[in-house]
Amino acid sequence: MKQLSQQELNHLMMLHQQSRYAEGIKEAQRLIKSFPGELMLFNILGVCLEQEGAFQKAADAYKQALSINPAIPELQFNLGAMLYALNEPKKAIHHYEEAIRLNPNFTEAYFNLGTLHQSQSEYSQAINAYEKALTIQPGFYEALANIGTIKQLQGRLDEAIECFKRTITIQEDAKGHYNLAGAYRNQGNLILAIDHFKKAIDLGSNEPEFYSDLGDALWHDGQIKAAKEFLHMAVKIDPQHPRANYQLAVFLYDNKEFKLAMNYFEQSQFEDWQERVLYCHYKLKQFKLFEDKLLALTALKNNSPFLATLSTHFAQNFQKQDSYKFCPSPLDFVCHQKIPELTKNNKALIKSLLSDIDSADIGQRKQSRLTAGIQSSGNLFKRPEQSFQILKDALIKVIAEYYQNIKNRDCEFVRSFPTNIEFSSSWYVKMQNGGHLNSHIHEDGWISGAVYLSIPPQTLPSDDGSIELSTDGDDYPKMHNDFPIKTILPEAGEVIFFPSSVFHRTIPFQSDEERICIAFDVKPEA
Predict the structure, then answer these.
(1) Dist. CA 247–CA 351, nearest whole Å
(2) Could you give the CA distance from residue 83 to residue 75 in angstroms, rounded to a whole number?
(3) Fewest CB atoms less than 10 Å from the CB: which of 265, 398, 400, 432?
(4) pLDDT in 10s for each residue of the chain, 526 residues
(5) PROSITE patterns recorded for this chain (predicted)?
(6) Any idea of the CA torsion for 406, 411, 416, 422, to the nearest 10 degrees?
(7) How distant, in Å, are the alpha carbons of 57, 175, 305 from that of 186?
(8) How far apart are CA 234 and CA 270, in angstroms?
(9) Cα dist. 441→24, 445, 506 in Å?
(10) Residue 262 CA to chain centroid, in angstroms?
(11) Cβ–Cβ under 8 Å, residues 81 and 92
(12) Which CATH number fits domain 6-204: 1.25.40.10, 1.10.10.10, 3.40.1010.10, 3.40.50.2300?
């Protein structure tokens, strides 16, 4: 029987090594006709097809090879990778596990298995796989970095930071510093976040995200000029980059450069860019263009609180019917109640929260709408302090009860209410004498609200220090002043929350005592 010669195999290997994959595919297919039992030919064919992006054909080639000999771990691994690329995770897991069974020290198989579990939000299985890879290869810093990323997603920020620090000691690179910066940013430490974003850039990386995220961190630290420079640099590196364009647009939008902002939003095509463009048209009083785009967008999107804000204001402003039925009469959906966990045991939890706010190493964010006050950076509910975790659990219970009370109402706000209550952001706000927060909405929320920890004694007029809720705010252009308003003076131990489409502001107050609350957003589910 004729056998495949070493010369023919070497020629095929050379085509692969020289990245001449199309030629390699043709040569492998030609040889397979003569040597249908040669496992190596199917493997090389699979590798070349994979490099050409023909994942299904590559998977078929690896299956053919495994039908000849299923006991080769590398082939099981290759097939697993193709099945993952073809979005068949369960089958991919089977072949990665088979590769590990055949070779218990197959580090890359453990890593890929971890990546697959991570992509499926199966975090404990992912960490287990990464840890096994690290046991075999302690210097496998990519596996360690992925463990850090998972711990950050789980809110275990101190552990995430330690993982990222260890990756840098193994291999100092731009990505390691970028990961560490993101964890510090989430923890609320803007100073260290900025420092590590800069180190990521200094190490030679030309990734737009590094410049864009540095610019965003500088902006929230109040370094406006430097922020603008880095945000522009990100777009200069990659003019087509969606998130870089979006972050620059948000900066310009917040600084009232609406015409420029629209250009970058349209270039980004990212997240809620269409609502942001509509906002710019409205602010520029381009009402006809706004109305045309509003009608087109409301026909496509039924679950955007930001779009509901714009549609409701426009309808009430020009006395038209609001065709967007996201949350009719949104002030009827306001919740105001006590949180039992805050008021029991002589308000012990409030005292713990105030103590942790004062003593924890939490950075401050510069907030342009806030007068005579400070706001924390990061996400308090992802911090390790027990008081924040107890409050988070208490809020989840209150919001779940709130949903039970509204679940029979017929509107999209209720129909698409988040199944799992997760806080996309949470921060404290401290206000001193004369403090207030200008009217605004939280564009990327679903529910927005605040828990009140300290309220100064009431003074005349009686609404000093109250929260004012309305369908009008943020200096939207107005044809009249006939917009509904609800004013609530909260007490310590209470929570007030509402659909994120509702404008809210704090009315100025005069007192020597601080007004302290923890604000939060529940973000829509993807």
Answers:
(1) 38
(2) 12
(3) 400
(4) 467 778 888 887 888 788 888 988 898 888 888 888 888 888 888 999 999 999 999 999 999 999 999 999 999 999 999 999 999 999 999 999 999 999 999 999 999 999 999 999 999 999 999 999 999 999 999 999 999 999 998 888 999 999 999 999 999 999 999 999 999 998 889 999 999 999 999 997 789 999 999 999 999 999 999 999 999 999 999 999 999 999 999 999 999 999 999 999 999 999 999 999 999 999 999 999 999 999 999 999 989 999 999 999 999 999 999 989 899 999 999 999 999 999 999 999 999 999 999 988 788 887 778 999 999 988 999 888 999 999 999 999 999 999 999 999 999 999 999 988 999 999 999 999 999 999 999 998 999 999 999 999 875 567 899 999 999 999 999 999 999 999 999 999 999 999 999 999 999 999 999 999 999 999 876 5
(5) TPR, TPR_REGION
(6) -50
(7) 43, 17, 24
(8) 15
(9) 58, 9, 12
(10) 22
(11) yes
(12) 1.25.40.10
> Rounded distance, CA 321 to CA 326, Å?
13
Quick check: 356 and 385 in contact, CB under 8 A? yes
CB burial class (10 A; 0-12, 13-18, 19+) of residue 381?
buried
Rounded to a whole number, what is the largest CA-CA distance in the chain? 103
Name the amino acid, one letter, at 143. Answer: A
Q: What are the tokens at 525?
A: 């589910």
Q: CB–CB of 33/65 below 8 Å?
A: no
d(CA 134, CA 160): 16
Distances (CA, A) of 301 to 37, 250, 294, 308, 526: 55, 21, 10, 10, 14
Domain map (residue ranges) of the chain: 6-204, 206-301, 332-522
Q: Confirm whether 6-204 and 206-301 share one CATH topology.
A: yes
DSSP secondary structure letter of residue 352:
H
Which class would CATH give 332-522? mainly beta
As given in the structure block, the two tokens for residue 395 are: 């809020």
Cis peptide before 484 (omega within 30 of 0): no
* CA 79/CA 66 separation, integer angstroms: 9
> How far apart are the C-alpha atoms of 475 and 335, rounded to whole Å?
25
